[in-house]
Amino acid sequence: MAEVQAFSGAGSLMSSKAGSGCLVSWPGVIPKGKVSHDLVTSMDTLPTICHLTGTPLPAKKIDGMNIFPALQGKKIKKLNKRYFYYYSNEKPSAIRKGNWKYILPIRDAVATNPGKNGKNGKTETFQQTEALYNLKKNVSESKNVIQEYPEMPMSLKMHWLHLTKL
Question: What are phi and psi of 113, to 5 degrees?
């Protein structure tokens, strides 16, 4: 098994790009120059557009929520209480809630060379160690604070176990 740098780019397990920025402009409706640090996701787009257009949500429950009040500068307490789950090869690999991101100890793979002519490039496996990051203080995910906050991974793991039993 090769030793591979785990930080493999946007959208990867070790990327906080799940918190990338978004610019929204709607003069007279959305306050100009407002900055929000609320955790929203593309899954919130459909419920928000449905709200704005007066369209009912699909009958089958969907993920995401209407974030229009947040865009107007109002606080939505639920936003930072939601859990986000990361998967790698269809297996759970990380859990995020608010500023906390817990990385489960998993074996994973990253492409180390690009593919060519429709064929995959070289892929190397690595063992990802258990880690905990406070993304408010360390957005680059370079300081593992799991030893400083031993209760946090357990809390996130318990939520995951409860969810998988539903």
Answer: -140, 140
| Buried b / exposed e along 29-64 (16+ C-beta atoms within 10 A) | eeeeeeebeebbeeebebbbebeeeeeeeeeeeeeb
How many CB atoms are located within 10 Å of the residue 15 CB? 17
Q: What is the pTM of this model?
A: 0.69
Q: What is the pLDDT of residues 56-84, one digit of tens each?
A: 999 999 889 999 999 998 888 888 788 88
| Beta bridge pairs of residue 87 | 92
Contact criterion met (CB below 8 Å) for 132 and 101: yes
Q: Name residue 162's amino acid.
A: H
Return the closest-CA partner of residue 101 out of 52, 153, 160. Answer: 153
Contact 78, 65 (CB under 8 A): yes
Spatial CA neighbour of 47 closest among 71, 63, 31: 63
User: What are the structure tokens assigned to 155, written together?
Assistant: 């809390």
